[in-house]
Amino acid sequence: MKYINIVILMMFLALGAPSCTMLEPEADNHNTLDRVYDDPSFAEGLLIKAYTYIPTNDYSFDEVATDDAVTNDRLSSYLRIATGEWSPRLNPQSEWDNCNKGILYLNQFLTVVDQVPWKWTNPQVKELYIRRFKGESYALRALFKYFLLRSHGGIGPNGDLLGTPIYDSFLESQEDFATPRPTFAESVASIYADITEAQKYLPLDFGNIGTLPEGFEASIDIADYNEVFGDFAQQRMSGRYTLAIKARTALLAASPAFNPAGNTQLWQQAADFTAVLLNDLGGLDRLDPNGHLFYLKQQVDQADITTGDKKDLQEILWRRPIYNNSSRESTNFPPTLYGNGRVNPTQNLVDAFPAANGFPITDPMSEYDPAKPYANRDPRLSHYIVYNGSKLKNTVIDTGTDGGPNSLEAIPTSTRTGYYLKKLLREDVNVNPSSPSSQKHFNTHIRFTELFLNYAEAANEAWGPDGQGAHNFSARQVIAEIRKRAGIEQPDQYLANTASQEGMRSLIRNERRLELCFEGFRFWDLRRWKENLSEPARGVRINADGYTYFTVENRVYDNAYMHYGPIPEREIIKFGLQQNQGWQ
């Protein structure tokens, strides 16, 4: 009874005494936005958070939704969209959420960056930090806009080519998000505008210097410059990376899906933008002789900016930090090497690799032997794909019908096509549970090989196989160097005999397919080229009677409209945005 009286008294005091504040929330230690004005590291977190949304932070392996691969993961969302379930409600290829989140973080950061005490003890350093952070923000915003446009730009209900909503300020109300879709050209112009703004603030490259780069006032102290723009800032968004984003955007805008009139000036612009970047770094001399093997130990070790030999860093323009891991290998090694065999290259892709002399295997000049399909082939085939009888970790992999767990669909983690992935994997990783080991890896944002292929594609469309525009090399010269590096026998007679623009176009697209396989390009390349999306994924069955080729998985895409990705359904419902044609 005494206890009850005490409780009643406390309730009376809490509810009846006017001066009591027991029910009012007290200040706690939760962070609020106000902290950014006092804590530079907290403020920079807004910018760093945006970096975490970059789509190329990891490899998607979305090739399993194309003609290049399938997966043995039956629950894969990529398998589902490839076999008929792609919709505005199921879209693992959507960049809408992540890219718009990144943009909103950047926009909020730009509203506070001038007011943060980045270094109150040194006003010059403070201003340099503001300059760098603004440049990074505008450049990252351009990057996110590019991925949004690639993934969601398309033909609207009225037949107009539409882009994606442009958010150039921090939005706080639902009405602010209900921004109509601009034209595709307006979205491209918005990307270019952000890049132009970023270039006002950023040097071409970060790193300690002895002489101030162009665009920086002579009064700036070198030590202060190096504190802000020096080695510590490596792999943050630089001026050179923005040039690559600009070139990528121009290539997208020139491509058939977004350039239905075939405007050659757009192709010329894409070639010009790319050539500016490549020529500044040495033109074709920049092509790394080992660039197609960038994921192997020697190249990964060289890429370490603290211990590597910087003069050999010719392949990787921009990458994520190096990390120790074994997940790629455990995911993709064959089952006898304790892997899950997830990504299975198709016969389609295997057939795309030419013979060693450079001729397609369908050409009699290739001397292709159907009884020995992997003999006398482009060396990249053995670098990138594990086929029957090839080695991985010094172990012969048998995918024939009597090959045990590595055989075609022998167990749930076996291949469905007769092939396993080799590219991007390190053979010095051990995923045996009894003695596991990891090794260094990195994920690439932009490789120079991609940029050379971008240039070749644009230059061929603008000026033909041998035209150079105002530059020092042609599409043919680029492809010649890439094929020579790959190990194609010289002289390359097939390339020499490819005289027409159409023939060179096919060759360039095939070289792009091979060089960039499993790096997240094929899905969108097919779409921007308006190529057939429904080529069935094929495999091989090997037994005593030889090689039998069969359809592993049909690709259920509608070529009438699926060259463009959908706008998420909820955005259509919430904000009344126009959907791309065909999507329901």
What is the helical fraction, as a range of percent?
25-40%
Low-confidence stretches: 1-20
Q: SS-based structural class?
A: mainly alpha
Strand order of the largest sheet: 1-6
Distance between the termini: 67 Å
Strand residues, percent: 5-15%
What coarse outline follows from CA principal-axis ratios? globular
Average pLDDT value?
Answer: 93
Helix count, DSSP H or I runs of 4 or more residues: 20
Summarize the biggest pleated sheet.
2 strands, antiparallel
What is the oligomeric state here?
A: single chain
Number of strands: 14
Rounded radius of gyration (Å):
27 Å
Characterise the protein shown here.
- It is found in: Cell outer membrane.
- It holds the Pfam family SusD_RagB.
- Keywords: Cell outer membrane, Membrane, Signal.
- The chain is mainly α and about 575 residues long.
- It has a domain at about 325-440.
- It has helices at about 1-15, 40-50, 75-85, 95-110, 125-150, 175, 185-200, 220-230, 240-255, 265-280, 295-300, 325-330, 345-350, 380-385, 450-465, 475-485, 495, 500-515, 520-530, 570-575, and strands at about 70, 155, 160, 315-320, 325, 345, 385, 390, 395, 420, 440, 445, 535-545, 545-555.
- The strands form seven sheets. A two-stranded antiparallel ribbon has the order 1-6. Strands 2-3 form a two-stranded antiparallel sheet. A two-stranded antiparallel sheet has the order 4-12.
- Strand 13 and strand 14 (about 545-555) form a beta hairpin.
- The longest helix is centred in the N-terminal third of the chain and has 30 residues, at about 125-150.
